[in-house]
């Protein structure tokens, strides 16, 4: 008899590496608020624990000293209590043989090591849900078994009640006898095919599934009948009667008659289409550049790691080309960010058309691209491609679409110039800076004695250290609009550096270095004080109750007492605490650091409001939203940009808005650039918006003029700009 589901799901992690145990445990804790996680380095100890306990999910390494993952899986399945426990086998071997051995032993799923965190969470979450569903059905079956010993009237009533329950389950459930004929079809599955359950009972399974799916189903049924064991859930793609492709998670289990013989096979299919689409969308966002659709730095590093692994198994060599556009800034400044975005998209398309399918073209950020060139015979192959890239980006055609933009290219060869992704990226970056220092429009191979990048970084650090004392920093402000009243309710303070030689610099060009050197602390302190000073001035001038939002760096929370900095800034400026909002990243919240929690509650007691910036792009978790004194969620612009064109983006935005309102939080959408985006957000109940549809970040005096002109309800927003360069402090 199957056991009822536990109140707290149990996850068993078996790996001889303590480091892997910690990593998988930390990932697993993101699945649910309450979990019972047990870790074992010795598989036999894990089996001893299982002899007295049950688990809802088992995660095991394949290669372990005393017992392989496949052997452990087989031992677990040998216990009838564990025939349906989901098991994920993690292996560094991509050879099909190891996957087959694990699956034949009874593994539910497998992952390649090193594990992709997003994929790990998605698969583990689905298997836990399926386990809960299996246990729920099992519990109901147990109740039915008890009722069999009651009177005939109670037996009949129980059967009818069970049929009603199964008909209401949002899953397709059917049972087939040994001849492959339907003995039961629930209402949900019958309705899927436009029939009544009674029309399908007694018919061959082909009448339900069609010839192709029925052939596979019969083979799996025979395996269940032969072994007497359930088949772990498997994903299958199904074409619905209306022609729409759907994705189902299907499991099979034996059903026994009164004599204990297997009489039929129960099949359960759960529709996971929308979940899979959302997971793929989030995975794509995490690994691709939102403007060009190219792989981003994260995915490029993964591709580099795979190529390096291939090289260790053979003698494959590859090249990495680091491409920096020479004249992009001039085009961007002269024609605006919209034209700059279009140029970057055209460069991306041209680079993809230039190389073969096996190459990887990535955008690293700004006007920097990279190309991974696999399977080269020598430096000559890399040199030819580098020259082809230069020729492409220096087209002299007299055409509006000609890419006469120029580039500086750094080329590094692997494994000669490096044996890990970061080293190759750094070396190709240094080679690119050498090409840039020679006047651009050229390419250079990396050489071990190159240090121009380090020299430039040191020079920028020196300039950055004196920028505060020379009063070169300035704050721009971007309006935040209430969608119900149409009025300006706040502004986000955004840092700029008025460099004496290079002009106005966005934070992306210097904040990374500021965080590395610790200069982010005094810079953020200046931003906080200046924003409070400006807010107090605006209030004194009668501009109204304008909320000023300031981004706070995670380093600020961990190294300094933020509550003290805020108190001092409010006291010295005279700004009311209720007009100050601090924007936090999800990274600050995920650790649940008690010191940070204490600071947040102190800030809340002062009247300061707290918001989560770029919500939805990190490991968004209901648990931390409930645990912290937050006021507002800010939807990341990457979701807003795709509203109206991508149903997944609309679903994500709708979910964030609903979640925020359920938790009594305000929701603000960033990056609103078009009227259709604004209308969709208004229809979905979003509270506030900001973006270039209304105004880009502007100086303080220009902000006042803008509010006086546009700040009233019903005023028309400005048009034509995009947020290509929207960056912020902290």
TrEMBL record:
Annotated ranges, domain GGDEF: 316-448
Q: Which residues form the Response regulatory domain?
A: 10-128
Name positions with the PTM 4-aspartylphosphate.
61
Q: Domain PAC, which positions?
A: 232-284
Return the SMART domains for the record.
EAL (SM00052), GGDEF (SM00267), PAS (SM00091), REC (SM00448)
Organism's domain of life?
Bacteria
Q: Which InterPro entries match?
A: Biofilm_reg_signaling, CheY-like_superfamily, EAL_dom, EAL_sf, GGDEF_dom, Nucleotide_cyclase, PAS, PAS-assoc_C
The chain positions of domain PAS read 158-227
Q: Which UniProt keywords apply?
A: Phosphoprotein
Q: Where is the EAL domain?
A: 457-711
Which Gene3D superfamilies has this protein been placed in? Answer: 3.30.70.270, 3.40.50.2300, EAL domain, PAS domain
Q: Which Pfam families match?
A: EAL, GGDEF, PAS_4, Response_reg
Protein name listed in UniProt: Diguanylate cyclase (GGDEF)-like protein/PAS domain S-box-containing protein
């Amino acid at each position: 008899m199957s056991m009822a589901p536990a109140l707290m799901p149990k996850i068993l992690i078996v790996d001889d590496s303590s480091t892997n145990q910690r990593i998988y445990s930390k990932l697993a804790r993101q699945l649910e608020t309450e979990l019972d996680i047990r870790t074992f380095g010795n598989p036999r100890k894990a089996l001893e624990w299982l002899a007295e306990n049950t688990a809802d999910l088992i995660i095991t390494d394949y290669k372990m000293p005393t017992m392989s993952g496949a052997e452990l899986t087989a031992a677990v399945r040998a216990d009838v209590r564990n025939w349906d426990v989901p098991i994920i086998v993690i292996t560094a071997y991509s050879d099909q043989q190891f996957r087959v051995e694990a699956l034949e032993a009874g593994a539910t799923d497998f992952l390649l090591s090193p594990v992709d965190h997003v994929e790990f969470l998605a698969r583990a979450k689905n298997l836990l849900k399926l386990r809960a569903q299996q246990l729920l059905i099992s519990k109901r079956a147990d109740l039915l078994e008890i009722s069999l010993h009651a009177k005939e009237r109670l037996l009949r009533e129980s059967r009818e009640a069970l049929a009603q329950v199964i008909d209401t389950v949002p899953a397709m459930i059917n049972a087939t006898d040994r001849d492959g004929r339907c003995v039961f079809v629930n209402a949900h599955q019958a309705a899927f095919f436009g029939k009544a359950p009674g029309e399908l009972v007694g018919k061959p399974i082909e009448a339900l599934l069609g010839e192709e799916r029925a052939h596979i189903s019969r083979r799996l049924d025979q395996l269940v009948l032969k072994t007497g064991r359930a088949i772990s859930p498997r994903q299958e793609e199904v074409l619905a009667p209306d022609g729409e492709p759907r994705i189902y998670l299907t499991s099979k289990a034996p059903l026994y008659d009164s004599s204990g013989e297997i009489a039929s096979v129960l099949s359960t299919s759960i529709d996971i289409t929308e979940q899979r689409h959302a997971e793929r969308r989030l995975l794509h966002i995490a690994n691709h550049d939102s403007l060009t659709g190219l792989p981003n730095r994260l995915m490029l590093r993964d591709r580099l790691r795979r190529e390096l692994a291939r090289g260790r198994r053979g003698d494959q060599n590859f090249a990495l080309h680091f491409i920096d556009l020479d004249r992009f800034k001039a085009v961007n400044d002269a024609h605006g960010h919209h034209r700059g975005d279009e140029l970057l998209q055209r460069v991306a398309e041209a680079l993809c058309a230039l190389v073969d399918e096996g190459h990887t073209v990535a955008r690293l950020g700004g006007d920097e691209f990279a190309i991974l060139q696999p399977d080269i015979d020598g430096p000559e192959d890399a040199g030819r491609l580098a020259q082809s890239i230069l020729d492409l980006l220096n087209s002299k055609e007299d055409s509006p679409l000609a890419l006469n933009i120029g580039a500086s290219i750094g080329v590094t060869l692997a494994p000669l110039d490096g044996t890990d992704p970061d080293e190759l990226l750094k070396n190709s970056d240094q080679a690119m800076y050498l090409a840039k220092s020679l006047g651009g429009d050229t390419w250079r191979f990396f050489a071990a004695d190159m240090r121009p990048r380090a020299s430039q970084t040191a020079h920028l650090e020196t300039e950055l250290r004196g920028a505060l004392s020379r009063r070169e920093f300035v704050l721009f402000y971007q309006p935040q609009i209430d969608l119900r009243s149409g009025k300006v309710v706040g502004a986000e303070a955004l840092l700029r550096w008025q460099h004496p030689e290079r002009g106005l610099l966005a934070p992306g060009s210097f904040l990374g270095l500021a965080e590395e050197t610790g200069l982010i602390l005094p810079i953020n302190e200046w931003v906080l004080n200046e924003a409070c000073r400006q807010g107090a001035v605006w209030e004194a001038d009668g501009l109204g109750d304008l909320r000023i939002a300031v981004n706070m760096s995670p380093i600020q929370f961990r190294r300094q007492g933020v509550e003290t900095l805020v108190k001092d800034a409010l006291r010295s400026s005279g700004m009311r605490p209720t007009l100050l909002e601090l924007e936090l990243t999800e990274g600050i919240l995920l650790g649940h650091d008690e010191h940070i929690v204490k600071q947040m509650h102190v800030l809340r007691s002062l009247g300061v409001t707290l918001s989560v910036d770029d919500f939805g792009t990190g490991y968004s978790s209901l648990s931390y939203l409930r645990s912290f004194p937050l006021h507002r969620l800010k939807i990341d612009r990457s979701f807003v940009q795709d509203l109206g064109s991508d149903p997944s983006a609309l679903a994500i935005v709708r979910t964030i808005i609903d979640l925020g309102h359920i938790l009594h939080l305000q929701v603000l959408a960033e990056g609103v650039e078009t009227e259709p985006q604004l209308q969709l957000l208004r229809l979905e109940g979003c509270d506030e918006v900001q973006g270039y549809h209304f105004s880009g970040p502007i100086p303080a005096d220009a902000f006042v003029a803008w509010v006086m002109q546009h700040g009233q309800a019903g005023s028309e927003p400005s048009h034509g700009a995009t947020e290509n360069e929207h960056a912020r402090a902290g």
